[in-house]
Amino acid sequence: MGDARRSSRHDRKRARRRAIVRHWPITLILLTAAVVNTVNADGEHQLFYGLGKAAPADLIARWDIAIGPRGDELPTGHGTAVEGAVLYALQCAYCHGTNGHEGPDPVLVGGRGSLATSSPVLTIGSYWPYATTLFDYINRAMPFVGPGSLKANDVYALSAYLLHANGIVAEDEVMDRDSLPKVQMPNRSGFIPDARPDTGAQQP
Amino acid sequence: MAEGDRRQFFRRVRTTLAGAAAAVAAPAGFTLDTTKVQGAVAREYGARSRYETLKRWITPARFLGSTASWTPLGELNGIITPSSLHYERHHGGVPDIDPASHQFLIHGLVERPLVFSLAQLQRFPITQRICFLECSGNSYTEWRTPSAPSVQRSHGLTSCSEWSGVRLKTLLAEAGVMTEASWVVAEGADGAAMTRSIPLAKCLDDVLVAYAQNGEALRPEQGYPLRLIVPGFEGSINVKWLRRLKIVDQPYYSREETSKYTDLLPDGRAREFTFTMEAKSVITAPSAGMRLSGAGFHEVRGLAWSGRGAITRVEVSADGGEHWQDATLHGPVLPICHTRFTCPWEWDGTPTALLSRCTDETGYVQPTREQLRSVRGDKSFYHYNGIQSWRIGADGTVTNG
């Protein structure tokens, strides 16, 4: 009985919060940024503060660089492995080797079929599940001495080059916001969820 | 003035001058009676004694902007790691961020994309918690062969601090998360624009957007002015120099959650999103590189922690794992926090090995290295939490193995 009374009170508060969220502009005018009392889904006291500013569209556009597997955030532009080969020699070979597997820094090319052996070589071709990760990472973090310095066309071309070097796309295949997410990576189904605790070292 | 008085006067002058100089720095080999002179004056920002030289060990790397520094666990006490000795792992160096111009954006699947200044974030109700961070690569050397020369270099990629900031759920409520949202992509403002995907459920649980560490502003190398604290999860997901959260409907498979921080298994498949750092303990003293001064009483001291909650038990073996005895846990014993343990030990002067194993509140017991390798093989790199053994030689030397 007490529970029923409490839950109906919670329901009312929840409804009020939903209304506040749905009618946000009106709420803002009515309350002029006053703190609003609501109850969240856990039944905990939840305040609404009206702090922060509406994010400017240009800031979002400038910062929205994380590329998901669907490629929604990929910019316009395009490139091929042929174009990428020149860029690779200029921007990448110094650290990753002439052909992407000489190092000294992480090996990018080769290693296909090595994962279950005693000497696995984890590369873009042997290990990475999504081609979109390639664009995302080169664009945000490479080259190490000038992160974020490459143009979209350069990043597409380098992605195409590294995919081609790994035998995944043809030399003249154009990588762009439509084609890159569709590239089937060899190890796409090679990842499984966390299965821990897995050592059986559990007390009864 | 008589000759005797003059001599005495000049002796006094010399003593006073020497004392004044000593207040700043006593000459080497010269012991000063500190009760006979005025000490140094107050200073506005403190520093440790000039006799203390404890420091982090930095992994040699071609680019030092992408390396790690290891906490000297063997010589530290208590559960709070001094901010100056907190381990570091950077992927693109430590950025120099002006807090006055730093912006923090929440967007994606939200009703109201919001941008916050640091000052605005600090107006939200403050919350704090003490918790450990551990790089998932901590102890990676021990998978194949126990080989690290010290506890600093085997286990030093964990540290424990008090963090203060805003609960992320408060900020997400402010932005209004849409029902189709299930993951959050966090991004840093460093040279790597470090990016990780975090389950929304965790963000709505206990994640902090922190701006203070051990009471003062975050250290630059710890994410100044803003970082995520994701209690119990591997270190790299606690994104430093936090500038953006995008609320999304699937993980984004960034390089740091595919190419790195995944666990390759013997059959060639790999585990992804292995977030929680499992229970682990290590004897910090005596530990490799130290030397026992002789037989007799020694206190075995160490740390235990678990990403799943509180440590409930630590056992110590002084005979290579044949027999175990319960160690004393020293409070406070907090969930997802370094916990101190000690155990008295009478060394008979013969060679032996010291081991510790911990149990957390879920009943999980720290596994042996063999148990880990039997499940995950020997090609794994991250998430090693095996029992560590320190070998005691007849001459008192302590080595790994």
Describe the fold and architecture.
The complex is a heterodimer of chains A (204) and B (401). Chain A is mostly helical. Chain A has 2 domains: 8-48, no CATH class; 59-182, Cytochrome Bc1 Complex, Chain D, domain 2, CATH 1.10.760. Chain A is built from 7 helices and 6 strands; from the N terminus they run H-H-E-E-E-H-E-H-H-H-H-E-E. Chain A has helices spanning 2-22, 24-31, 57-63, 81-91, 93-96, 132-141, 152-165; strands at residues 36-39, 45-48, 53-54, 78-79, 175-176, 191-193. In chain A, the strands form 2 sheets. Chain A has a two-stranded antiparallel sheet. In chain A, strand 1 and strand 2 form a beta hairpin. Chain B has 3 domains: 1-41, no CATH class; 57-271, Sulfite Oxidase, Chain A, domain 2, CATH 3.90.420; 280-400, Immunoglobulin-like (Sandwich), CATH 2.60.40.650. Chain B is 13% helix and 30% strand. Chain B has helices at 3-24, 118-121, 151-155, 168-175, 200-203, 369-376; strands spanning 57-58, 68-70, 88-89, 103-108, 114-117, 127-134, 158-167, 183-188, 195-199, 208-213, 216-217, 227-229, 242-248, 263-264, 270-272, 280-285, 296-305, 311-317, 325-326, 328-330, 339-347, 352-360, 389-392, 398-400. In chain B, the strands form 6 sheets. Chain B has a 5-stranded mixed β-sheet. Chain B is globular and about 85 Å long. The N and C termini of chain B lie far apart (74 Å). At the A-B interface, strand 2, strand 3, helix 3, helix 6 and strand 6 of A face strand 4, strand 5, helix 4, strand 13 and strand 15 of B.
